[in-house]
Amino acid sequence: MPAWAGALAGLVAGGVALGVAQLAAGVVGPQTFPVVAVGDATVDLTPAPVKDFAIRTFGEHDKAVLVGGVLVVLAGVAALLGVLSRRRLAYGLAGMAAFGVVGVLAVLTRPDTGLAGVLPTVTGVAAGACALSWLVRRATRPGEGAVEASVVRSPARVSGGERDAGAVEWPAVMRGGGEPVVFDRRRLLTGVAGGVVVAGAATVLGRQLGGRQAVDAARLGVTLPKPAAPAMPIPAGADLRIGGLSPFITPNRDFYRVDTALVVPQVDPRDWTLRIHGMVDRPVELTFDDLLRMPLTEADVTLTCVSNEVGGNLVGNARWLGVRMADVLRQAGLRADADMLLSTSTDGFTCGTPADVVMDGRDALFAVAMNGEPLPLDHGFPVRQVVPGLYGYVSATKWVVDIKATRFDQDQAYWTPRGWAERGPIKTQSRIDVPKPGASLRAGDTTVAGVAWAQHTGVDAVEVRVDGGQWRQARLAEVPGPDTWRQWSIDWAATPGSHTIEVRATDASGRTQTDQAAPPAPDGATGWHSVTVEVG
Ligand SMILES: Nc1nc2c(c(=O)[nH]1)N[C@H]1C(S)=C(S)[C@@H](COP(=O)(O)O)O[C@H]1N2
Ligand SMILES: [Mo]
């Protein structure tokens, strides 16, 4: 059997393994698909600098790149195992088993997979092993006269063209019993076709089974109660409606997404509970209906990711509806010496929020809705936290299921050992949305516009300067309160040439953004956003 045939058999066997694993994961849960489990484990084990590099390089595609990378490596190894299987089938089978062990270990380290979570890996590897041995056996047949053929047509003498001409007889090799066998290309290729069909069908079926239909349907079935504390209508002057300027409310479909989950957790609200325990007098466990029966508050809050670069787009503003976290925590009897609320999501992400911030009267919510609809799955359905003024990694737990009242000197959340600050108050920032960097403008009157944020303090001033000249005050749009970003704009009489526009904001406590440039890690980027344009 030539090397290419071994590689092909290995690839197809690998495909069958993944297809069957996908099918089983469709029943057991998409997060148990071994590629996802290994990918998720990789995300958690990746050193912070590598992860930062990946986010910087691939942005929101980092997950796709990771899964793609795992698949490419798997394909390479599967092909290699196929090549080795020509010598001895046991090599290939042992290699598959080794992958099974890695897959099982990865699955077992995941917080959201029970013991049944190993089933996709185990059945996948078993199916892959069967496929490999079947293909390798099938590709060879007892060869009467094979020894003779080998003398006449040894590979060294066979020209490329002849190799492709039907069932070429390769040098005879001895199979177990010692009878000579020959490679049968046609039988291999028909076997391969069968394997591809099995792999493809299993993959498609598995994806359908594991699809979001059930949770999507449950989401559509949620009736949102009216807020007991509605937000004021958004002031008409909150949105300057300038082309290219971020709208005041970010539509859900455009809202940035940052999380460690390779597949979006699917949480059925009928199964969801929120457990509150630790340093509380009365531990409680709430169902989704319990939560919806409590008074709901509506609030406009701008979320920001600590990984957002100066000028970056990991920031968005929405109208949230939810129960005040403080109400729930008071009901549980939060003790005064608990200074941290350690929240956990269904997929095991943890987040440590300063308790005093949550309890100080601001609109810190267990949110159930975003911009008038139940939370989108990507943004934490059925329940997530939203805390004005804190970066997402210390406050905004999506798919939240557990709150432990604890202390910063006793517990650590997900990102802390990975090099990010324990506490993450949002730093005042401002961004130029128009003109875009590198834009070519016509000389004359133009509008420069953008957004600025200083959540829970509020933005009091935005200034703009061109080419290091005088700072000029921008016009500020209205805001419903201090927890959202604020649009700004300024007129500029653009003159021919290359120009750099800079912006800086001052918050309501009188502090102006520092010009000191700092990277996102460990506690948020600083510096002034600048945009260079060409005026013709
Ligand atoms: N379960 C879970 N929640 C999470 C995260 C996560 O990785 N897992 N990431 C946090 C971070 S870093 C940010 S910035 C916000 C982003 O929320 P969004 O994706 O809805 O914009 O979610 C937070 N909540
Ligand atoms: Mo974040």
Automatic annotation (TrEMBL):
Keywords: Membrane, Transmembrane, Transmembrane helix. GO terms for biological process: sulfur compound metabolic process. Residues 263-412 form the Oxidoreductase molybdopterin-binding domain. GO terms for molecular function: heme binding; molybdopterin cofactor binding; sulfite oxidase activity. The chain crosses the membrane at residues 64-84, 89-108, 114-136. This is Oxidoreductase. InterPro entries: Ig_E-set, OxRdtase_Mopterin-bd_dom, OxRdtase_Mopterin-bd_sf.
